[in-house]
Amino acid sequence: MMNKRDISKELREKMDQFNVDVPEISLKQSLSQRMVNWLSEPVKSPADFLFRQWTPLKIALFPIAAFVCSIPFAFI
Amino acid sequence: MNSSKLEELFNSYHRQIYQFTYRYTQDETLSAEITQDTFIKFHNYKESFDPAKSHIRTFLFRIAYQLTMTKLKRRNKFKKLLPFLYERHNVSSISLDDKISIRTALMELPQSHRSVIILFYYHALSHNEISDILQIPIGTVKSRLYHSLKKLKHLLEVEDDE
To answer: Could you tell me which residue ranges the RNA polymerase sigma-70 region domain spans (chain B) (predicted)?
Structure first.
């Protein structure tokens, strides 16, 4: 059966570079802390996505499309 | 099991569980949450643990692995729903000329292979124990280990001394 020593020294040295520092973790779950973590998670700005995906023509047509889509609401 | 015994167990194993999940996900917050959840799940399902069948460490690793898979699947679903909120992991950004680190190399491995190499190398677990944790045959453990070492050597540009 293979063991750690069967791995080449060079590869072992590279793998040993991945050290992990363990933060303070408590046994008790805190829902509020999890919510804070979730809300503070870095995310991309949706505006970047729109600007990358949308061509000038699409941007120009957006108000017209929004107007057309909102017409049915006028009859409610 | 009373709370002091659970706390004792937590103090003995939480570092190993965190290190495993962190090396697997490379996400601090997620790894800390999985570590907490592992012990809470163990406490809730302690009746299903049979010391005659497996070691407590193996049992905890199995719970942690299952939780990691569930949370990653959930996260991927969320990414599919709101893709514009997530940075896309750009695989092509790694040029062949760049020397990549072990962290990047591990993330390049398929998930099934990554878990095997982490448990084998960083936690010194036997093939039997890995097979028990991942619920796969020993032959699959050996084959995944062989292929992940081969891929790591290639990615990290390590000379093949076979």
So the answer is: 9-76
ipTM of model? 0.77
Distance to chain B for A19, nearest Cα, Å: 9
Alpha carbon of residue B162 to chain centroid? 28
Quick check: A47 contacting B, CB < 8 Å? no
Average pLDDT over chain B reads 87
What percent of chain A stands above pLDDT 90?
17
Residue A52: band (very low, low, confident or very high) from pLDDT cuts 50, 70, 90: low
Question: Average pLDDT, stretch A6-34?
Answer: 86
**Tokens standing for residue B25:** 């996900």
Does A8 sit within 8 Å of B158, measured CB to CB?
Answer: yes
Residue B109 sits in the same domain as residue B130: yes
For residues A20 and B18, the answer to whether their CB atoms sit within 8 Å is: yes
B8 and B73 fall within a common domain: yes
The parent domain of residue B1 ranges over: 1-88
Of B65, B88, B111, which residue sits at a domain end?
Answer: B88
Summarised one tens digit per residue, pLDDT across range B64-96 is: 999 999 999 998 887 777 766 666 554 444 455
Instruction: Map out the domains of chain A as residue ranges.
Output: 46-76
For residues B131 and B71, state if they share a domain.
no
CB of A7 within 8 Å of a chain B CB? The answer is yes
Torsion sign, CA atoms B110, B115, B117, B122: positive
| CA angle A13–A17–B147, rounded 5-degree value | 65
